[in-house]
Specification:
The chain is built from ten helices and four strands. The chain is mainly alpha-helical. A four-stranded mixed beta sheet has the order 1-2-4-3, with helices on both faces.
Length: 294
């Protein structure tokens, strides 16, 4: 039997290892691309600076973009007192500043948190979620989103997006450049690896990003159970979310990984490529992990 503390520690360790591996991958891919194009150290540095500058906008403005895409409006304490109080109480329990609270008019059931740090965080739920969950289940979902804020997942996702942006821009620039093909056998091998990096780096980077996102969902689930002291709340909420087939009207590829459940994929068990490219672990797997902590 795995308790809440062990579950949080295990998921945090696994997430750290994946992030370190991702950083090494970005550096290696950048080096291979720089070698094939004969940029040298200076060229590689300038390429990374250019890619970073173009993606930092999403780091500082990503929360506003996500809320705008969700058509979110500030929550009203008078009309949603239980929701407002639950956010305040769980934020206090997690020892983080109370996030700004929003409600999306979407009738589908979902929720997300955003913001580059706890001081500038926001928490949004859909009207469909408020209409269909009881107070204990709602607290389980809010605890999950508060955990994302406390664990700095929203910042992590922004950093990962920057690394993905670097790889995408480097690969695109390299693809349209003209590398020197006059090289010896050793250079030819390097050329082959470099071309492979140009073609495969964006895909591999995306898969690593999805792996990080899925692992952080397990960590946020465990952290929610720790904050609320009752895993049954989030278990009940996830079961209702698994039965909800109403599509999220405001779903967007750029913000899909923010939500508590994937707004695009079917709620049934996934297999093959669908499972590989899903931003979230299967709901039944998440419920099984929470059941271990009862």
């Amino acid at each position: 039997m795995v308790n809440v503390y062990q579950q949080v520690d295990q998921n945090r360790t696994k997430s750290f290892l994946v992030i370190v591996g991702f950083f090494i991958f970005v550096v290696l891919a950048g080096w291979l691309i720089s070698q094939i194009l004969e940029w040298g150290a200076a060229g590689l540095f300038l390429a990374f600076v250019f890619a970073s500058g173009s993606t930092l906008i999403s780091y500082y403005q990503g929360d506003k973009i996500a809320l705008s895409l969700a058509r979110a409006k500030p929550a009203n304490r008078r009309t949603e007192p239980e929701f407002y109080s639950a956010v305040e109480n769980l934020a206090r329990a997690a020892q983080v500043p109370t996030p700004k609270v929003y409600v999306s008019p979407d009738p589908a059931m979902n929720a997300f948190a955003t913001g580059r740090n706890p001081e500038k965080s926001s928490l949004c739920v859909t009207q469909g979620l408020l209409n269909n969950l009881n107070q204990t289940e709602l607290e389980g979902v809010i605890g999950h989103e508060i955990a994302h804020i406390k664990n700095l997942d929203t910042r992590l996702f922004a950093i990962v997006a920057i690394l993905i942006g670097m790889i995408a821009l480097l690969s695109r620039f390299a693809f349209y450049s003209r590398p020197n093909r006059d090289r010896d056998q050793g250079g030819g091998i390097l050329f082959i690896f470099g071309m492979a990096a140009i073609i495969l780096s964006p895909l591999i980077g995306q898969l690593i990003q999805l792996s990080i996102s899925r692992r952080r969902e397990f960590l946020a689930d465990a952290s929610s159970a720790f904050l609320t002291r009752q895993p049954s709340g989030l278990i009940g909420a996830l079961k209702k979310l698994a039965q909800n087939h109403q599509p999220l009207q405001s779903a967007n590829n750029a913000t899909a990984h923010f939500y508590i459940v994937n707004p695009f994929f079917s709620r049934g068990r996934l297999s093959g490529l669908a499972k590989l490219f899903n931003t979230h672990p299967p709901i039944e797997d998440r419920i099984a992990e929470l059941e271990k902590m009862r």
